Here is the input.
Amino acid sequence: MISGIGDENILLYVSDLKKYFPITTGRLMGTKGYVKALDGVTFTLREGESLGIVGETGCGKTTLGRTILDLIQATDGNVYFNLPKEEMLRIMELENKESTLREEGKTDEDPELLKVLKELAPLRREFSTTKMSGRKLSKLRRYMQPVFQDPFSSLDPRKIVRSIIGEPMKVLLKMKVEEIIAKELEIIEEIGLSEDHLYRFPHEFSGGQRQRIGIARAISIEPKLLILDEPTSALDVSVQAQILNILRDLQNRRGLSYLFISHHLNVIRMMSDRVGVMYLGKMVELADTEELFTDMLHPYTKALLSAIPIPDPETKINRIVLEGEIPNPSDPPKGCHFHPRCPVAMKTCGWSPVNLSNPLAAMLDPVRNQEAKDIVGIQEIIVDEDKNYLQILFAPESPVSESNLQLVKDLIEKESLLKGGVVFEAIKDVFIESESNSLIITMVDPETPKLKEVRKGHFVSCLLYDYNYFDQETSGSEQVAEELISDKG
Ligand SMILES: Nc1ncnc2c1ncn2[C@@H]1O[C@H](COP(=O)(O)OP(=O)(O)OP(=O)(O)O)[C@@H](O)[C@H]1O
Ligand code: SF4
Ligand SMILES: [Mg+2]
Here is the structure.
């Protein structure tokens, strides 16, 4: 949800965008699941603004760019681009309303939600690139152009640069030959090459020069938005700076908007007015660049930014090492996707019986834990994800007893106080179930954080900041969040 919309000129509004790639198996190509590469991404981009998108490999950055460009078809959600201001603001208002009503648990049959959806449906058909007709979309596409990481593979090797830059002007803008020649010259100089370069083939250029040509082709048809996906990542460091300078000059001169995708944090900082941080298909934090780099709120952003190399070895910085692998996006963790790696995770952040089963088995193993030696007769630990509980099954010859229950409760309490014991904190209750000769361990229900505006213009998706800047009753919550973090950290 986007709140606090001012009267800025929004060029692009991405709303709850989803892209699920099917995972197919076998000869019959049945679908066995989905990679949720984008799982409900929402943000805006103003005219002339540069929005950086950052996050670890596989978090969905490229998919985001390609879905906005409609090079990949969205699974769900909407993309509004270059709309009249009035329509854009009305759509944002309605989509906000829809998202609030859904958060309140309203279904499609609810009269209030139904009214919103009825008004939205024709607006979406007319203005959302994920819903509009092909003809309308191809007209609009001209105004958003991609610049990819590998310029060589995106330039036709059989064409000289003149054709590469000139053809889109001829085909899409129907410009006359003399106009095209003048424009080609203007553009080739704008990107720091000269007239004779127009008559060479892509293979005659260095990597940096090819990227300049890729940029020239993208701007040849006067777009409003460039989607730049790692535009300098394949280049030598010295060449990278030249390309970034060209991009900055172009933006100032032409008032272009950029969606700038990179996993290089320093490049993102240099090139962006605002930055969005992605994790496993979701936007977890979005803020003005300087605020994000100096006063980031999300635990993932803190860890990500603490890894930036700093030039002065004397400077002390608290590095946060993220434990564990990036989870599989086809089977993301429950609740907050980041919870298995989060250093300040709380009991409601998404722990499930599967997370608890190994630590619980270790806790109850008398070889590893002396204190468990008095609990005799444990036969098996059964995990039930659906019912959100675990069952410690005792052998028939060892009836489960009140003393077993107390010992297990005491051990759980001890474990929950240890570093990393948060999964034990997530235990709601432990009780005897006589008919199955078991101890049942129930767990608290996981909560899923939503992206919320917690300071003006600063959006975070984390349960520590589960309040809204505009909600007066919860003011002071940020202080509570900071206290929780310092307790855990
Ligand atoms: N065509 C596809 N089919 C199936 N899965 C895909 C496809 N494209 C991407 N994915 C998966 O979607 C997820 C997001 O991939 P994406 O390329 O968008 O990440 P990224 O953030 O751009 O990563 P990187 O920093 O490595 O470029 C990954 O798990 C990836 O394996
Ligand atoms: S919701 Fe916040 S505190 Fe909880 S796991 Fe996610 S990032 Fe960490
Ligand atoms: Mg990528």
Observations:
- The chain has two domains: 1-143+223-348+448-489, 353-443.
- The pocket of adenosine-5'-triphosphate (ligand 1) is lined by residues 21, 35, 37, 55, 57-63, 263, 329 (CB under 6 Å).
- The chain has a mean pLDDT of 90.
- The domain at 1-143+223-348+448-489 is CATH 3.40.50.300 (Rossmann fold).
